[in-house]
Structure formats: structure tokens, C-alpha cells
């Protein structure tokens, strides 16, 4: 099950991604947490030392593409593979259990509670301009497109702030999207926009209130987002202490916040996997990218990369390596 945390800058996407991933790991579930934000901060909140950070996926796109394309005859080279190129027969697919393929073994670091951390990589000086950032995040899109996951297995993605998350097809690659919102006018300001985007694509979304100080805050959120409000996390002294560099374990979290994480987990678990939508939208966004820039960039008609004989999801045939 894949979940994205989106929302305004500073709302708590990174904090909640990390706490949620740690909660899932504590329950024993295999969990990969991916830092797909411009400011790479997730490792820190997961308790990974600077020196223990994994190799950035965004800097090794060619290697990742070379592996994933396997011997799929529709993909002529790694260079002809773009972020939206979907898997087909012959492609190499990824699993979370045991997850010992070269992508996980080369690009994931294990955080203290067993969360596996993957990162797109930080912005370098010469990355100025969004195009490069989007291509780095493209590593996550490729990863998710080739991942065959099921219930009880988790990928948590810390997304970039604002409506940027909706700029590519990446937002359609999740079973659930948690919109983190503070109980302020600004905090709920992007809600309608997110909700409308999500509704257009049949993407399930729920609002998670954060840094809530009391019933008045909850009422405010409820008033603005209605039944889309799933649960709220309170302003947390334990999180503040973590940010101050003090030792932190999940056990330090306030009981109400720990319960809220459990609600998020239950909600994610209650989602049905919709492989049909997933495959349909993979093709849709690939065609859109092909026409907009990728055909020109690669000099090929990338529509031919879509394999009509390939079925997304856990079929025996598609899982063969
Ligand atoms: N429930 C909470 N209680 C206390 N502090 C919190 C809580 N949630 C987040 N914070 C604090 O708020 C600040 C912003 O949180 P965070 O970095 O997770 O937001 P973000 O949405 O990822 O921001 P950005 O858009 O910059 O990536 C951090 O200092 C974090 O420690
Ligand atoms: Mg962040």
C-alpha cells in the first residue's frame, strides 16, 4: 500500500511521514519511506545520521532505468526510458518482501526502527529550475510504477510542498493521499484545489489535521473540510524535542498522537487496491508526457512503449523476473 503526504509548506508532511513510517515499522510491517521533497529532511526525522543517508536515486537514473527495463523489447535503451515509461512484459518488477533486488539493496538505508529510507537527493547548485527537480522525482515515479505491493506492505512518500505534487502523474500512483493541514485559513486554503484534482482522477484523499491545540481547532478544520477530515494530531512536545536533537522513540509520543497514527494505518489498510486505475493512468500520463516533450527528447514514438498485453498487479506472469 502506497501513501503520500502532501500539503502546504511547513504543515508537517515530513514529520507525519516519518512518524507514520515508524509506527508501521513498529507494527512489524515492511515499510519503505521515500524523501521526494526538495529539502531533504526525512532522514533526520527518521533518525538516520547524515553519514548514513542512502545513495540518491535522482543521481542514478540511468542505472535504475537499466535495471527496470530488463529485457522488455519495447524499451530500446535506458535513454529511451522516461519517468512515465510503464512496465511491460520483460520489465523487472519490484516487491517489498523480501525487497532484496538491486534497487532496494543499492538505494535504501535502514533507519533505527527498521524503516528503509530512499531519497531522491538534494538540490545541487546547478539544479536550479524545476525541470531538474521533476526528473529527480521521476525516480520515484519509476519505482512506484514497477512496484507490486499488497496489503500489509507499505511505501510512505514525503512529497514536495503545495500543488506541485499534482504537476506530474506521480499523485495518481498512491492508494491513499493524506493532506496535512494546520487549523488556519492558510492551512485549509489549498484543500479545495487538492480535493478537486484528486476527485478528477479518482484518487482517494483524506485530511489530517496537524499541530492542533484543542477542540476549537478541530471544529475549524471540520467546518472547512467536512467529512474529509480523518483525524488530528496535536501539537507535540515530543516532536519538538526530536527537532531539538534530543533522543526520541515512538514511545515518547503523546498517546493521542500515537492513536492518530493508528487511525491513519487503519484507514490505509481499509483501501482496496485498484490496479485497473493504476494501469490506465500510467498509460494516460505516459502518452501525455510523450506528446508534450518526451517523443522529442528521445527521438522515438514512446506510445509504442505501452504494452497492451501487460497487466498491472500481482499476476504470476508479471512477477517473473
Ligand atoms: N504535531 C506537531 N507537533 C509539534 N511540532 C510539529 C508537529 N508537526 C510538525 N511540527 C514541526 O513543524 C515544523 C514543520 O514540520 P515539517 O518539516 O514536518 O513540515 P513540512 O510540511 O515537511 O515542511 P516543508 O514544506 O518545509 O517540507 C517542524 O519544525 C516540525 O518539527
Ligand atoms: Mg518537509
Automatic annotation (TrEMBL):
GO terms for biological process: negative regulation of cell division. SUPFAM superfamilies: P-loop containing nucleoside triphosphate hydrolases. Pfam families: CbiA. Residues 7-98 form the CobQ/CobB/MinD/ParA nucleotide binding domain. One of its GO terms (cellular component) is cytosol. Signal peptide: none annotated. One of its GO terms (molecular function) is ATP hydrolysis activity. This is CO dehydrogenase maturation factor. The lineage of its organism: Bacteria, Bacillati, Actinomycetota, Actinomycetes, Streptosporangiales.
Amino acid at each position: 500500500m502506497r501513501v503520500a503526504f502532501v500539503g502546504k509548506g511547513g504543515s508537517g508532511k515530513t514529520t507525519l511521514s516519518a512518524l507514520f513510517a515508524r509506527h508501521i515499522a513498529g507494527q512489524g510491517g515492511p515499510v519503505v519511506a521515500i524523501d521526494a521533497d526538495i529539502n531533504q529532511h526525512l532522514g533526520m526525522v527518521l533518525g538516520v545520521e547524515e553519514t548514513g543517508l542512502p545513495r540518491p536515486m535522482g543521481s542514478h537514473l540511468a542505472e535504475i532505468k537499466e535495471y527496470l527495463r530488463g529485457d522488455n523489447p519495447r524499451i530500446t535503451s535506458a535513454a529511451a526510458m522516461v519517468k512515465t515509461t510503464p512496465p511491460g512484459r520483460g520489465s523487472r518488477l519490484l516487491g517489498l518482501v523480501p525487497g532484496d533486488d538491486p534497487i532496494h539493496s543499492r538505494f535504501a538505508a535502514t533507519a533505527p526502527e527498521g524503516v528503509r529510507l530512499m531519497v531522491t537527493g538534494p538540490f545541487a547548485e546547478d539544479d536550479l529550475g524545476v525541470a531538474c527537480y521533476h526528473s529527480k522525482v521521476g525516480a520515484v515515479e519509476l519505482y512506484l510504477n514497477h512496484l507490486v505491493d499488497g496489503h500489509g506492505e507499505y511505501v510512505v512518500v514525503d512529497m514536495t510542498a503545495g500543488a506541485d505534487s499534482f504537476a506530474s502523474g506521480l499523485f495518481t500512483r498512491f492508494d491513499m493521499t493524506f493532506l496535512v493541514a494546520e487549523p488556519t485559513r492558510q492551512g485549509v486554503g489549498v484543500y479545495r484545489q487538492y480535493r478537486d484534482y484528486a476527485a478528477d482522477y479518482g484518487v482517494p484523499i483524506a485530511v489530517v489535521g496537524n499541530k492542533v491545540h484543542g477542540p476549537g481547532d478541530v471544529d475549524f478544520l471540520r467546518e472547512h473540510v467536512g467529512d474529509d477530515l480523518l483525524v488530528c494530531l496535536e501539537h507535540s512536545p515530543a516532536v519538538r524535542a526530536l527537532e531539538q536533537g534530543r533522543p526520541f522513540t515512538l514511545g515518547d509520543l503523546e498517546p493521542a498522537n500515537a492513536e492518530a497514527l493508528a487511525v491513519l494505518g487503519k484507514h490505509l489498510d481499509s483501501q482496496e487496491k485498484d490496479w485497473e486505475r493504476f494501469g490506465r493512468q500510467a498509460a494516460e500520463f505516459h502518452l501525455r508526457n510523450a506528446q508534450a516533450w518526451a517523443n522529442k527528447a528521445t527521438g522515438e514514438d514512446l506510445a509504442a512503449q505501452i504494452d497492451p498485453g501487460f497487466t498491472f498487479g500481482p499476476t504470476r506472469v508479471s512477477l517473473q523476473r
